Amino acid sequence: MFPPSLYIDTIVAISTPSGRGGIGIVRLSGPDAWKIAREIFCAKKELQHATAIYGHVTDIKEVRLDEAVATAFTSPRSYTGEDVVELATHGAPVILNALLETAIARGARLAEPGEFTQRAFANGRMDLTQAEAVHDLIAARTLEQVHQASAQLSGSLSRELRQPKETLLRLVALLEAGMDFASGELDDVEVVSPELIRGEILSTLSHLTSLAETFRTGSLLRNGAAIALVGRPNVGKSSLFNRLLQRDRAIVTPIAGTTRDTLEEDISLAGIPIRLVDTAGLRHLDETLEQAPDTVEVIGIERTREALAEADLVIFVHDAREDLNVAERQLLEQLQLRPHLLVANKSDLAADRPSASLSVSALTGENLPALQQELRTKLQSDTALSEVAALTTPRQNEAIRQAIEALELALTANQNALPHEVLLMDLHRARLALDSLTGATTPDDILGRIFSTFCIGK
Description:
The protein is 45% helix and 16% strand. By secondary structure, it is α/β, with parallel strands linked by helices. The strands form two sheets. Strands 3-4-5-6-2-1-7 form a seven-stranded mixed β-sheet. Strands 9-10-8-11-12-13 form a six-stranded mixed β-sheet, with helices on both faces. A hairpin with an 8-residue loop joins strand 3 (41-42) and strand 4. Helix 4 (128-139) packs antiparallel against helix 5 (143-153), helix 6 runs antiparallel to helix 7 and helix 7 runs antiparallel to helix 13 (394-415).
């Protein structure tokens, strides 16, 4: 049994992207959605739940606008949990805008960004992790992103949280009951043992820690990664850049220092959106800006440093025919604490292959599949994220982190035999953190920030 909708007004918006298309949709949601639709939509049949009806729509002067198909849904069996009507017409902006103005004149209000999904959340049709997945599904650029968002929209993360939340609730109930028993109300009932408390907390901690470990890869799949190619001039960075793009994007010449600025292009690697950055070669790698011969190179060096600092993964390219010089070794040392890959280019010209590097030839494509596989390994975990629940946003990660922190404090309190009142404070903090993840206790300002990122009409 669903509760009644929390909203008393009816909202309307164009739910299809701006521009011309074969079909455009205007969506109404709220208590007067059907009433307003009947004043706009004319057909031989009455509106019926989950049934597409053919007819036509009229403007504010009741002049026929276009043929249309109306699909109506009754509360609570709709996307928002309210009465909903979707009017599909030809996708000319002038038609859709006239239909929108007519609906507003009939009593609807223009929807705010994300307000349809926010109403679905408020009316219990989805939790906050599922609402965030709607945004991710719309914004997806790769099939793997679609799979991940679709899994979360179906409730994979919510289901993953069910067991630790139930364990916490059970432990809280046992402790509170034990406090009542210990107070003398029921002296014949045994107080909860420290061993039982420790076991329940450790079990929950293990579950949440495993979930926390999905954040890096989940976030990477959701937001994409930046990969920067760095190295000295004329080691073949731009040629390798073109090979990975599978098209000639960067200018390549035998002249050292052809690339004077950063070049960026988007590709997909193992379903992860990648921003591939080709950088200007650093002549000595450790040179200062004052040593640069001209203003253009000064800017190029600055941008190379910025790309290096911002990259999620660095491809350090060197010439397979030459040993690493001192400056290159110094930079390689600096990269040890960051994800990086040492690549020896021009392997087709080298007699010996450097043992510490992955040898490739940007000219012939030799070993390019091995390079792509190494990049996948550096960026992606062994488990396909589309098949498991994963944390994808900093908000979700912070909620899990707070829950883990509270449980660790509870574990210490139990070990030190502190009063159960102290344990209960920490356990309640952990429970509230998990509730905030799904939206049960999330403040309104956080909800506002989340839904304001949606497009109008969703």
